């Protein structure tokens, strides 16, 4: 299994194995608990996305190792805790990943994070912020809690309904959650 030692945190945070500190978070939380926790966070509201993020294009993210679809609502982003690190993020639970291992924190901030692995091949492709810290939540951020390492994904811009222009985040909403699901039943059956 490939474990990427590059970036971590809330879209725009940082993971470096030498900086990781294990938290004493309970690892028996279910995957759905973390999905529901995101929507219930008081500061999370996709409709209040800062205007600078609304003009960004929406990307489909595929696993670099097996080409499986990970997410259809990706955004190019930077880490809050280390603005030199570029990555991709999404606001909705991705379709092609599973939470793995225990929560941990880094020395860069106090966000609790957990690695995510591709369902197709098992490689670690990013992480999920299970509990953001106050510092990161108070900074200008895109509200995304699912991050993908730049070198673990291949991004492709999605096109709008005309097929002529890139689809922009201003054209999406969290209610349009089906844009992060498989296009048809065949995709699921063939996996």
UniProtKB/TrEMBL annotation:
<dbReference type="InterPro" id="IPR026768">
    <property type="entry name" value="YPEH2ZP"/>
</dbReference>
<feature type="region of interest" description="Disordered">
    <location>
        <begin position="1"/>
        <end position="37"/>
    </location>
</feature>
<comment type="similarity">
    <text>Belongs to the FAM72 family.</text>
</comment>
<dbReference type="Pfam" id="PF14976">
    <property type="entry name" value="YPEH2ZP"/>
</dbReference>
<feature type="compositionally biased region" description="Low complexity">
    <location>
        <begin position="10"/>
        <end position="29"/>
    </location>
</feature>
<protein>
    <recommendedName>
        <fullName>Protein FAM72</fullName>
    </recommendedName>
</protein>
<dbReference type="GO" id="GO:0005829">
    <property type="term" value="C:cytosol"/>
</dbReference>
């Amino acid at each position: 299994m490939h474990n990427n030692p590059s970036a971590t945190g809330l879209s725009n945070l940082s993971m470096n194995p030498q900086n990781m500190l294990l938290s004493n978070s309970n690892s028996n939380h279910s995957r759905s608990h973390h999905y529901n926790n995101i929507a219930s966070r008081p500061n999370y509201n996709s409709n209040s996305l800062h205007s600078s993020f609304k003009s960004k294009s929406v990307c489909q993210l595929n696993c670099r190792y097996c080409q499986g679809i990970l997410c259809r609502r990706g955004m190019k982003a930077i880490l809050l805790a280390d603005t030199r690190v570029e990555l991709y993020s999404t606001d909705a639970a991705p379709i092609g990943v599973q939470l793995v291992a225990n929560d941990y924190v880094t020395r860069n901030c106090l966000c609790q994070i957990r690695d995510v692995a591709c369902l197709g091949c098992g490689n670690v492709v990013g992480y999920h912020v299970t509990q953001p810290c106050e510092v990161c939540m108070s900074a200008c951020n895109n509200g995304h809690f699912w991050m993908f390492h730049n070198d673990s994904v291949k991004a492709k811009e999605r096109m709008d309904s005309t097929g002529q222009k890139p689809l922009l985040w201003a054209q999406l909403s969290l209610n349009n959650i089906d844009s992060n699901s498989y296009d048809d039943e065949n995709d699921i059956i063939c996996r």
